[in-house]
Write a structure and sequence with these properties.
With 249 residues, the chain is of the alpha/beta class. It has a single domain, classed as Rossmann fold, CATH 3.40.50.620. It is built from 6 helices and 11 strands. The structure holds adenosine monophosphate.
Length: 249
């Protein structure tokens, strides 16, 4: 089967994010950008399915700026076969991403789309679910294990209080949770080889999807600064503070 893996270019998870002074968003100038960590897990899972003989081809797709080619190249260096960039400098909300991905699915006919459970920039956790709804495909979200069994996909899901295993028909949409796998690092020879793998670049206009924002960001603010801790002299003082200052007992 063919697997489609959407990968998003986001601020690297190690970067301390700064909010712009006009509160319209976060500052992206001169900030290290990387592949969304859950998407690395999605690429890794697709590669493992290919190595197990379940999949034949992996396509990595990103919707974003020209520089999102770096993240697609990383996916290719890890082991994806070809890439597609749908180029835009606009903000693309999850619904618009899902609509574009639906068009790509119609063109490529993959049997499986593996997305991250959420992009760590906006924490939307919407795209996979919306894509499944638009395609009318079954979905296995927050996957911690994926296996193909008797023509179906068995997906173990991380839910409150335990693990839920579901069997879904293919074609399907899966979203990855943190414990699904540990993504591999791309080796230097594979990074070199990835430069020669095909990477198609298209425009939003090629898909006829209206990406105009449906949401208005009212403001973005820094989280409240944590107050410094205090040292107490005795248990009695601790209890007194917990009771009268913190109000937790
Ligand atoms: P979100 O719903 O924004 O939290 O994103 C969930 C997942 O959808 C991500 O982990 C990606 O797999 C995919 N995704 C979201 N936005 C994009 C994008 N611009 N390009 C490619 N994939 C995306």
């Amino acid at each position: 089967m063919k697997i489609l893996v959407p990968v998003k270019r986001v601020i690297d998870y190690n970067v301390k994010v700064r909010v712009k002074s006009d509160q319209t968003g976060v500052d992206l100038a001169n900030v290290k950008m990387s592949m969304n960590p859950f998407d690395e897990i999605a690429i890794e899972e697709a590669i493992r399915l290919k190595e197990a003989g379940v999949a034949e081809e992996i396509i990595a797709v990103s919707i974003g700026p020209e520089k999102a080619q770096d993240q697609i190249r990383q996916a290719l260096a890890m082991g994806a076969d070809r890439g597609l960039l749908i180029k835009t400098d606009e903000t693309v909300e999850p619904l618009a991403v899902a609509k574009l991905l639906k068009k790509v699915v119609e063109e490529e006919s993959p049997e499986l789309v593996i997305l991250g459970k959420q992009a760590i920039d906006d924490d939307s956790n919407q795209t996979g679910q919306m894509l499944a709804a638009l395609l009318d495909w079954p979905q296995g979200t927050f996957a911690s294990k994926v296996e193909k069994k008797d023509g179906k996909l068995e997906v173990t899901r991380e839910i409150d209080g335990g693990l839920q295993t579901i069997a879904i028909n293919l074609p399907a949409v899966v979203t990855t949770d943190l414990r699904l796998n540990e993504p591999r690092y791309a080796s230097l020879p594979n990074i070199m080889k990835a430069k020669k793998k095909p990477l198609d670049v298209k425009e939003i206009g090629d898909y006829g999807v209206d990406i105009a924002p449906r949401l208005e960001v009212v403001k973005v603010t820094e989280p409240p600064v944590r107050e410094a801790g205090v040292k107490v002299e005795s248990v009695a003082e601790l209890v007194e503070k917990l009771k009268n200052e913190a109000g937790v007992i």
